[in-house]
Protein: D-alanyl-D-alanine carboxypeptidase (Penicillin-binding protein 5/6)
Amino acid sequence: MKKIFVVLVASVLCFAVVCGTVFFFNKSKSSANGKTETASHLTKKQNKTNKKVNKIEYKETKNTKDITNPEVISTNGIVVDLNTNTIVAKKNDKQVMCPASMTKILTVLVACEKVKNLDDKITITRDMIDFVYAHGCSTVGFVEGEQITVKDALYGTILPSGADAALALAKYVAGSHENFVKLMNKKLDEMGLSKTAHFTNCIGLYDDNHKCSMYDMAIILNNALNNKFCKKIISTHTYTTSKTPQHPDGCIISNWFLRRIEDKKMPGTVICAKTGFVNQSGSCAASYFESKDKKHKYICVTAGSNSSWRCIYDQVAIYNEFATK
Structure:
């Protein structure tokens, strides 16, 4: 009897050990899986964040040239080889100044990253119209009470440099112009530009604290090119906005820099561009260029030219001198 009792106790103990081991193993496996899932989630989240933070740097090399061509009136400029992220040529490229309406490249980039439905409607308000006319801004021609699509606002911000469209985007994305500007400066910080670049409005109006360098703007444009829809907008020559009661046929708008430079003799094609002008910075432009064989890609940013046409010819001269033939 005693022998049977010992056997039973031993059996119970063995069973307990086995069950405990299985429980511990399963719990450990569960915990490990839990940690793996959490880590995986954080990695995905981190990757998502990293995609937004595109810290690009351009380096000078022993081959970097100064822009000295007397045909180039612009006082500031930079040419970047995107294949190597090196500075091909420069002229006062780190001088901080007002970027004028080149600002709207960042406006559209920030909006493109936030917008989910291009068909959403935005109502043009009296405050937007009053602001535009009080500051003498370029416009698409939208009127108070008109309901436009987000897509129209995006194209309207770039092609005719419409301040009415830019303000509509700001209100739609962030609830107010002020909040949208905070998003713009946050984006500048993500790009690593906050030490030299700071914006006070989404339009490009002159302000002592609305500033960046040609180098900074080349970084901003590069980031915009990495957003497919943003790049599409900046490369569009002509666009017709949606029909509304106020504009039954829509509004035909154009990127005049692209339309004017397309027939100029160069070793390739200007694909994307955004211009700007304020008295303090003269005529400005940021553009993206591809060689005829599509193998060589460049960004050129200039400021300080004496007219919109002269700004175009400045960039033609620069591309002809520095782009690969």
